[in-house]
C-alpha cells in the first residue's frame, strides 16, 4: 500500500541545489515514487502539502529544520529511502568540511574570518532568510550571488540599491547562472576565456549564448546574471545597468551582450542609455522585443540567442553583424521521414527544461505558423516536491512517452542542457524515453528534434552527448533557435489535413 513518510533533521541547512541533487538520488531507491528534500519553511511546507508529501511529522517541523519527504509503494521502501537520504546527508556534510575542520563555517562572519580575501558570497537559503544573509555580505563589502527565489521585490530593490551605492553586484534573487573571472556559479558551462562580456536576466539564455560563442571560437570575459526580476519596472534594471558599466570599464571586454525578456519600456530606455554611454559595441537580445528601440540606441538587435552569439563574435573580429539566421530547409533524408506522417499528425510538442529556451522556441514556432504546445517543465508548477528537470529527467521522460502516444503528434522538440550542476549524462537519461516513445507511437512516425546547449569541455562532453542522441535517432540542430526551425520544417512537411 502506498505510504508517505518523512525524516526531520533539526537545525540543519543545505542549499537548494544540493537538496535537488540529493532528492534525485533518493528517488532512485526501488519502490520510491517521489522524494523531496527541503528546508521546512512555511512556504515549502505548503509546497509539500500540494504535492501530497506532507505528513504529520513534516507538518510539525520548523523553518530551521531540514525535511526529507518520501512517497513509496510500501513501508519498507519508505524506510530504505529515508536511510539512503540520511546517508547522503551525512556524506555531504563530510565533503563540505575542509580538511582539519569538523564543520563548514556557520555564518558569513565565520567564512570571511577564514577567507579574508573573499570578495563574493553565494546565498542559497530559503527565500525568507536570503535578504538578511545578502545584507550581511554587502555590509562586509562582498558581491552577492543569490540563487534563492521567493524574495520580495521590495527586498530586491533594497539590496540592489545598497549594492549600487557600494559599487557591488547583487546577482539575483533567483539567479541561476554567472561566470566571474572564469569561475562558474550555479548552472553554467565550461567556456573559454575571451573578450565578450554578457549581462543577462535569463539563466539558460546566458548559457546558450556563452556556449555558442565558445563553439564559434571566441571566449567570455565575464558572464553576469542579474535575476529574472531585475528588468521589472519596480526594480528598474539596477544590476543590468551596473553590469554594463562594469564591462564598459573592463579592459578585457571588447563587446557587450545583453540577454533578457523584453524589459518595461522605461527600464529598457535606462539600460540602453547606459549601453550607449559605454562606448563599446553592444549586442542586445530582448526576446520578442522591438528591435527598432534597440537600434535607435546604437546597439545591434539580435532576433535570437544564436544571432546574439554570432553578432557578438563577428563584431569582436572586426566584422559586420550578420543579421537574422535563415529559415531551416529539410534535407532529403529528413523529408522522407516527414512524408510518413499521417494526415492526423499536425501537432508539435516542445518539452523544455530551460524557461528562456522554451520561450524562444514558442516565439519562433508562432512566427512560422506551426500548431504547437511548448511547456517549460522547470517552471515552479512542475518542480513542487521534485528536482529540476535539468537534474532529474523522469518527468520529462514521462511527457515524451505521453506525447508519442498522442495520434496528433508529429514532432517532439527538446532542449538538452549540459554544464556544472546539470545531469551527468543527459543522453543516457533520455534514452529509455526515446525507446519507449517509438514503441508507444507504433507504426506512426514521430520525430524527435533537439539541440544540446553545452561545450566540448563540459563535464558531459558535447560531442559525446550529440553522438549518443543521433544514434538514438534524434534529429539535432546546433542551437535552440535552429532546433525550433527544424522542428517546424518537419511539422510543415507532412501531409495536410483538408479543411
Short description:
The protein is of the alpha/beta class and 499 residues long.
Helix-residue proportion: 40-55%
Overall strand count: 18
Which class of the largest domain in CATH terms? Alpha Beta
Widest sheet, order of strands: 10-9-11-12-13
How much beta, percentage-wise? 15-25%
**Separation of the first and last Cα atoms:** 50 Å
CATH architecture of the largest domain: 3-Layer(aba) Sandwich
Radius of gyration over all CA atoms, rounded: 23 Å
Helix/strand/pairing category: alpha/beta
> What count of helical segments does DSSP give?
19
At the fold tier of CATH, the topology name of the largest domain is Rossmann fold
How confident is the prediction overall: mean pLDDT? 92
- Residue stretches low in confidence (pLDDT < 50, at least 5 long) are none
Major sheet: 5 strands, parallel
Shape: globular
Can you identify the CATH superfamily of the largest domain? Succinyl-CoA synthetase domains
Integer count of domains: 3
Amino acid at each position: 500500500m502506498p505510504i508517505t513518510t518523512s525524516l526531520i533533521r533539526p537545525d540543519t541547512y543545505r542549499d537548494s541545489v544540493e537538496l535537488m541533487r540529493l532528492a534525485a538520488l533518493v528517488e532512485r531507491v526501488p519502490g520510491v515514487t517521489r522524494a523531496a528534500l527541503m528546508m521546512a519553511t512555511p512556504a515549502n511546507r505548503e509546497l509539500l502539502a500540494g504535492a501530497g508529501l506532507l505528513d504529520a511529522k513534516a507538518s510539525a517541523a520548523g523553518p530551521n529544520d531540514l525535511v526529507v519527504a518520501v512517497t513509496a509503494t510500501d513501508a519498507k521502501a519508505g524506510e530504505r529511502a529515508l536511510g539512503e537520504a540520511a546517508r547522503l546527508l551525512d556524506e555531504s556534510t563530510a565533503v563540505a568540511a575542509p580538511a582539519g575542520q569538523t564543520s563548514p563555517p556557520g555564518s558569513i562572519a565565520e567564512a570571511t574570518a577564514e577567507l579574508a580575501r573573499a570578495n563574493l558570497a553565494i546565498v542559497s537559503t530559503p527565500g525568507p532568510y536570503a535578504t538578511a544573509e545578502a545584507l550581511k555580505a554587502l555590509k562586509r563589502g562582498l558581491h552577492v550571488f543569490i540563487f534563492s527565489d521567493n524574495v520580495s521585490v521590495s527586498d530586491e530593490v533594497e539590496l540592489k540599491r545598497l549594492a549600487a551605492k557600494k559599487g557591488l553586484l547583487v546577482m539575483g534573487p533567483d539567479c541561476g547562472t554567472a561566470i566571474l573571472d572564469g569561475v562558474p556559479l550555479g548552472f553554467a558551462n565550461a567556456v573559454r576565456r575571451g573578450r565578450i562580456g554578457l549581462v543577462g536576466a535569463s539563466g539558460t539564455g546566458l548559457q546558450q549564448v556563452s556556449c555558442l560563442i565558445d563553439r564559434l571560437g571566441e571566449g567570455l570575459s565575464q558572464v553576469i546574471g542579474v535575476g529574472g526580476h531585475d528588468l521589472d519596472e519596480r526594480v528598474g534594471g539596477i544590476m543590468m545597468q551596473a553590469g554594463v558599466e562594469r564591462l564598459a570599464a573592463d579592459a578585457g571586454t571588447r563587446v557587450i551582450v545583453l540577454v533578457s525578456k523584453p524589459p518595461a519600456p522605461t527600464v529598457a530606455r535606462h539600460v540602453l542609455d547606459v549601453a550607449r554611454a559605454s562606448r563599446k559595441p553592444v549586442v542586445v537580445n530582448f526576446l520578442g522585443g522591438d528591435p527598432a528601440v534597440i537600434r535607435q540606441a546604437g546597439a545591434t538587435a539580435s532576433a535570437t540567442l544564436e544571432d546574439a552569439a554570432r553578432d557578438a563574435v563577428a563584431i569582436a573580429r572586426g566584422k559586420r553583424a550578420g543579421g537574422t539566421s535563415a529559415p531551416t530547409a529539410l534535407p532529403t533524408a529528413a523529408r522522407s521521414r516527414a512524408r510518413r506522417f499521417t494526415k492526423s499528425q499536425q501537432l508539435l510538442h516542445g518539452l523544455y527544461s530551460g524557461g528562456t529556451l522554451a520561450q524562444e522556441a514558442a516565439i519562433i514556432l508562432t512566427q512560422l505558423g506551426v500548431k504547437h504546445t511548448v511547456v517549460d517543465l522547470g517552471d515552479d508548477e512542475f518542480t513542487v516536491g521534485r528536482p529540476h528537470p535539468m537534474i532529474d529527467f523522469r518527468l520529462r521522460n514521462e511527457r515524451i512517452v505521453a506525447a508519442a502516444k498522442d495520434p496528433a503528434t508529429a514532432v517532439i522538440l527538446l532542449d538538452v542542457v549540459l554544464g556544472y550542476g546539470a545531469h551527468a549524462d543527459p543522453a543516457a537519461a533520455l534514452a529509455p524515453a526515446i525507446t519507449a516513445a517509438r514503441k508507444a507511437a507504433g507504426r506512426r512516425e514521430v520525430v524527435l528534434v533537439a539541440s544540446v546547449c553545452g561545450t566540448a569541455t563540459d563535464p558531459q562532453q558535447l560531442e559525446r552527448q550529440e553522438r549518443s542522441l543521433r544514434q538514438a535517432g534524434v534529429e539535432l540542430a546546433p542551437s535552440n533557435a535552429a532546433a525550433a526551425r527544424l522542428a517546424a520544417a518537419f511539422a510543415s512537411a507532412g501531409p495536410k489535413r483538408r479543411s
